[in-house]
């Protein structure tokens, strides 16, 4: 196990193998922009992440991009590590990826991208095991 010990109980069941990770970006223009001092927010942008398994299941997650290049980070830095990986606990995959010491994944946009993939992997695992 790569992930730190936790009290989270993972029910036994088939492992998950990642076939692919896909992203889409949705941009919504705000009817009433928000002003914070000099900073003006005119839109909200969301990243949608889909983790597909070799067994045909998919897990999903979404979150704000905060105008960061979430799709690019996932395709360049996260997908190459996750693709083909087999695991029973998505936390193991998360830490395997994070512990590559890839600087972009340590904070900010990189951590946001990795976290979205992690949430989608948990969703995929719950679907594989009939728990979603």
Description of the structure:
The structure is a single chain. The chain contains three helices and four strands, in the order E-E-E-H-E-H-H. The chain has a single domain, classed as 2-Layer Sandwich (Enolase-like, domain 1), CATH 3.30.390. Helix 2 packs antiparallel against helix 3 (about 110-130). It has helices spanning about 70-80, 90-100, 110-130; strands spanning about 15-35, 40-55, 60-65, 85. A four-stranded antiparallel β-sheet has the order 3-2-1-4.
> Fraction of residues in helices?
25-40%
What name is given to the CATH topology?
Enolase-like, domain 1
CATH fourth-tier homologous superfamily: Enolase-like, N-terminal domain
> How are the strands ordered across the major sheet?
3-2-1-4
Number of helices: 3
Q: How does the helix and strand content classify structurally?
A: alpha+beta
CATH domain class: Alpha Beta
Summed up, the domain count is 1
Quick structural gist:
The protein has 132 residues and is α+β, with helices and mostly antiparallel strands. It has helices at 70-82, 90-98, 108-128; strands at residues 16-36, 39-53, 58-64, 86-87. The chain has a four-stranded antiparallel β-sheet with strand order 3-2-1-4.
